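User: Sorry, what's this?
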Amino acid sequence: MNSDSVAMTDLSGKMHKLETVCIFGTGDFGRSLGFRLLQSGYKVVYGSRAPKNALLLPKGSKVMTHAAAACDAHVVFVAVQREHYGFLSSLASDLEGKVLVDVSNNLKRGLYPESNAEYLNKLVPGSMVVKAFNTISAWALQSGGLDANRQVLICGDRADAKQQVMDIAQSLGFTAQDRGSLRVAAELEDLPLQLFPLWRLPLNIAICLTAFIFFYALTRDVIYERVTSGKDIAFRIMISLANKAFPIVSLVMLALCYLPGALAGFLQLYNGTKYRRFPDWLDRWMLCRKQLGLLALAFGFLHVLYTLVIPIRYYVRYRINVYTISLVKDNKTYEFDNTAAWRYDSYYSMGILGFGLFVLLGITSLPSVSNSLNWREFSFVQSKLGYITLLLCTAHTFLYGWDRFLKPTSYRWWMPPAYMLSLVVPCVVLILKLILITPCVDRNVTRIRQGWERQGKTSANGRDTKTNHPLIA
């Protein structure tokens, strides 16, 4: 079968011939798109200002002038920057009735009064302009949908034109999503300019928590010793204080992943229905739980790494040597403490088990892993094992503190030890969860989440569930 008779079979068994696709632009994106189209069985023709100078194009494609290329295809991808759209006005007659796919983006927001796609629509009014593929990178096209973002966002004023572009996107292995009319193009063009939008709140929380815990520990440990006894132990900032801040932030952020779910359960109990919207702050909080968890895992990794270097620290080896020599000089024996042995072994065991499950939670949050799990499996890992992880890490912290909270010397300047602060949020979450899983409460929550509504509560359609009549303001 030669390139002029490429065909594919759809689900109904009908054979249909793939069309020729034209690409204006021979840059990185244009070449990557052409390569992917050729792999999928399309014929590709490039439009260039200087066809003879166009190099490095995919094998099997053709290159010719813009006018000739436009006449050879019905779908034309415009893979050039907005500043170079001027030549398209001279091709208005050749592009009339054709589908123009605008893939461009801007360098910053608000650069132009209208979107690039709307501007293109004004330049070539006889064509059908569709905004698509602007959120897909050249690397994603080269590596394939499995290795990068698979979603292609599409908008346009003509349903038939959007359908043709959606068919192309799906044949390339991507998932197409129709976002509406061409007026949405400005919103789509802003998406690639956003820098980790779902990570902003989690990152701000992590930075604020880290700064607060670090300066809190700095005040209790370093500044207190300097003021009260004149000792300079500022060297502890690099390892000791960092290794106090990281596990505390990790535990608190892990608890913050599960706190909104517990609050949502109590809100549904209070409202007596699942059809009432959560507050905006709770919605936003629940949307960034994955990012909170991954940042918590990152801080947990840092805690593990910092803990591993403790035995080789100069300060630790110095203290061990001094203590050993003092025992020898005083002819004393270090007696075995069975209680301490149980405490430290339990402390380490809880930490190892908690961190192991923490890593499992992080692995299952990866798209390549979560996509292979059904909903029940994913819910079991992220919910049930997640709470077990939180319980183990909280127990690990309790064993670390042991009976220090009973000693007055632990409260320097009336400030409790930093580890006690880290237990507040996890304990609140665990108590709320314990209440939710009690049989009487769990039964009501389950009924509400299955669609039951308490009599007299307002449903999502604004009707009184008791009388079934519309509510009048």
DSSP finds 18 helices and ten strands in the chain. The radius of gyration is 31 Å.
